[in-house]
Every structure is written in C-alpha cells, then in structure tokens.
Amino acid sequence: MSQAQPINSEVLNRPLVVCGPSGTGKSTLLTKLFADHPGQFGFSVSHTTRNPRSGEENGKQYHFVTRDEFMERVGNGEFLEWAEFGGNCYGTTFAALTALYPRRCILDIELQGVLQLRSKASLQTPPLDPVYLFLAPPSIETLKARLSGRGTETDASIRKRLDAAKAEIEYALQGKHDVYIVNEDLKIAGDKLEKVAMGYQGWKDCGDKLPEFDVKELE
Ligand SMILES: Nc1ncnc2c1ncn2[C@@H]1O[C@H](COP(=O)(O)OP(=O)(O)OP(=O)(O)O)[C@@H](O)[C@H]1O
After folding, report:
1. Domains of the chain
2. How confident is the model at residue 123 (pLDDT cuts 50, 70, 90)?
3. How far is CA 133 from the centre of its chain?
4. Residue whose CA is at the smallest distance from ligand 1 atom 2
C-alpha cells in the first residue's frame, strides 16, 4: 500500500469495529496494522468487576470497579456494550472511546457487543458513526483448521467458538456490515484492512464478496 495516498481525515473519527469469527485472523492482522502505524490507532480500556491480577494497574489493562459502581454506570447508559462472563461484568464505555482521540479507535468485539453498539451509537452526543468491518475466513474448513492449528484451544473451547462463528456468519450474511474482507492471503487482506483503517481513498469499495458459506458445516 502506497503511503502517498491521501487520508480521509473525517473517517478517522469513526470507530472501526472489526468483527468476525474467532480464528479468522483478526489479532494477526491488527497486530501488523498497529506495528506498521505506531500511534495511529487506540484500543479502549474496558471496565470490569473482576479483581486485578498481580501486575495489573487500574486504568491500564482495565478500569477495576465494584459491581455497584458497574451497575450504576449501566443504569446511566454509559456502556456501549457490556456482558457478564464467569460471574464478572466487562464492558466498554463511550468515554473510553473518546479518550483515545485523536487516535482512531479500533474495537474487536463479539456479536452481542456489535448489536448493542448498533442500537446505541447514534444516540450519543455527538453521535458515533462506527464503520463495521467483517473479516471472513475463505471457507469454514479453513476456519476450523486455523482454530485447531493455533494450538491454543481445548476441544470444548473450539466447539464454543464454532457455535459463536455460526451466529457471526449468519449475521454477516444479512449484509449489515460496511466492508467485508476475506482473509485468504495475509498480505492481500492486510493491505485491504490498512486501506479501510487509514481511510485511504477508495476504502469503502475495496472489500470482497462473501464466500458462499454453508453454516451447517459449523454444527
Ligand atoms: N491469511 C492467513 N493464512 C494462514 N493462516 C492465517 C491467516 N490469518 C491468520 N492465520 C492463522 O490463523 C490462526 C488464527 O488467527 P488469529 O489468532 O489472528 O485469529 P482471531 O480472529 O484473532 O481469533 P480470536 O478472536 O480467537 O482472538 C493463527 O494461528 C494465525 O496465524
């Protein structure tokens, strides 16, 4: 990707929401994007009710809060998305996003978070206008191979991820994202992600057509 292409500065104010099934390659591609553009992008610091682990600092890895404080913030409508896992609450506040300015905020959130963000973003003052990007595997077979090939998951965890992948792909097939990128070749997908994330000219139309997935293969 040529660095000489003009950057559309308006689009950089729009949070970039990177969606896609676990194992598609989100972390791989985002790590490269951040390394290629230091200081350009920011990840928000989430709130959690879980206890800090040794070495964790309040405000750095997480904002550590009590359940009462968390629920008060929920009641105040401060979260763009939140969920409870394993007895603890985790969530992203709108304030955590705006704190990143002028860096472009990148969110890597799951379907539940995307749905919450969709219903709340336009109600903010000023309204948030996220760009929703779906990173797709080239096929379900490849997704399964990448998940098991990573060597980080137990069989149970792979099963859970494939169930979630089914919902993610079914939602993507409804055509609700702004851009779709198929991660077949890392270099090609990385160049497209860079174009979208940097708001380079033509970013809206650089995406791919979704492969014809048979989601039954995920059952
Ligand atoms: N284009 C590609 N070609 C071949 N292998 C790839 C490609 N993209 C990613 N991989 C490999 O697939 C595996 C899954 O990638 P990665 O961990 O980035 O997925 P992820 O979407 O971030 O998953 P999670 O949401 O679980 O963190 C990794 O082992 C990675 O090296």
Report:
1. 1-43+103-219 (3.40.50.300), 44-99 (3.30.63.10)
2. confident
3. 8
4. 186
